[in-house]
Amino acid sequence: MNISRRLFLGGTAMALTAPWVKRVQAADKISIASIYDLSGGLEIYGQPIDACLDLAISELNAAGGLLGREVAVQKYDPQSNIQLYTQFATEAATSQQASAVFGGITSASREAIRPILSRYQTLYFYSPLYEGGVCDRNTFLTGSTPAQTIGKLMPFAVKNFGKKVYVLAADYNYGQISAKWVKDYTEQSGGSVIAAEFFPLDVTDFSAAIQKIQREKPDVIYTLLVGGNHMSFFRQWAAAGMANRIPIVSTSFGGGNEHIVLTPAESDGVISAFGYFQEIKTPQNEAFVKRYHAKFGDSAPYVTEHASATYNAINHWANGVRKANSLDRMAVIEAIESGSTVEGPGGPSTVDPKTHHCATDVHIAKVKNHSFEILESYKNQPPADTAAVCDLIANPNDNQQYVIE
C-alpha cells in the first residue's frame, strides 16, 4: 500500500481514523501478472497480446473494477527466454502473490510455467492458439485448437488444391504435435502428407527445403512456422519465383502479423484459419476494433487471434471472480466451470467445463494486400480434440498434456 509522503512531512501528525483506514483498504488493488514476450524475437506475437490485455483491464476498471477494487497488472518481459519464463512465473506466484497469471506465447513457454503455477496454486490462463491436449484444472486455455482450425482447413485445402501435402513446421512441441494433427486431418480428407520438415526457431535459410519442395511437387504446402526468423521462408519462396505456384495454407501465418510485415508479393494468396481475424464484419468486432484504435492509435499492431483470445481470457477470469464474489482460486475455478461466456471480438467464447478450453467461431481467410479476406466461417466450434481425452469434471486431478499418436 502506497501512502503519500505528505501525510508524514512538515511535523504534522495525522490520526489514522477508522474511516481513513477503510478508504485505503477499498483502494487496495487486485494484483494479476502477465508474462508475454515483448522483446527477444517473439515480440511480434507479444505486442498485440499486451495491447488487448491492457484494453480489457482498462475496460474492467472503467466499469468499477472487481469486488469494488481496481485491477492492476504486473508485467514481466521474458525476452523470448524460457529461463526467464520460469523465473517470472515463480516470482508472480510467490513474491507478488498474483491472483491470476496470464502468460506464455509458445507451447514451450506454457509447459515451462504451467507446472510452476500449478505447484504454487496460482490460477493460470493461456490464450494463444496451440496444439491441444492440455488437461489441467488450474489452467484455462482460450485460444483455438487443431479440431477447430486444422479440422476445417485441411478439408478445404484438399478439396480446392489437391491431395499431396508438404508440411513445414517449427521444431518444438507446437509444430511437432500440430504436424500430427495435419496428417490426421489430411488423411481423413482423402489426402496424404508426403513430407514433413521441422526447423528450429533460429533458422533463416530455407533454400534446401525449397529445393525439396520443387522436386516433390506437392499440391499444397501447410506451414506451421513460427517467429520472425521463419518469415525468411516466405521471402525466399517468392525470390525463387514460387509465389502462387503452389498454394500455401497455415494455422500460424498471420498470428505474428506476418501479412503486415511481408510485401504483398511475398504473402498474397496465403490462406489461414483462426478463431479471429481483425477483418471480421460484425457490429461487435467493428466496435471492438474502434475502441482498440481509440486507445492505442492508428499505428497499433494488428489484432491477432492470440490477442483477441487474451481479451477474452481477462473477461472469463472476471466472470469467475464476480460469480464467486471472491478471489479464492478454487472458488473462481468452480465459478468459471459453472458457466462462462464472453461476447468477444470474434463472437461468443464459451468455456467447456470438462476441458477448460473454449468453443469459438472459426474462419478461413486469404491474404490480400496486407489484409485477410474471409472465405468461410464456422460457428461455435467445440474443442473436440481435447474433449476426446480430457474430462476434468470426472477426473479433477488430471494434470498432463495428451498427444495424438
TrEMBL record:
Domain of life per record: Bacteria
Keyword match Signal: yes
CDD domains xrefs: PBP1_amide_urea_BP-like
Record key words, sorted: Signal
Name of the protein this chain belongs to: Urea ABC transporter
UniProt key word Phosphoprotein: no
Domain Leucine-binding protein: 29-369
Record family assignment: Belongs to the leucine-binding protein family.
Organism: Pararhizobium polonicum
Gene3D superfamilies in alphabetical order: 3.40.50.2300
InterPro entries: Leu-bd, Peripla_BP_I
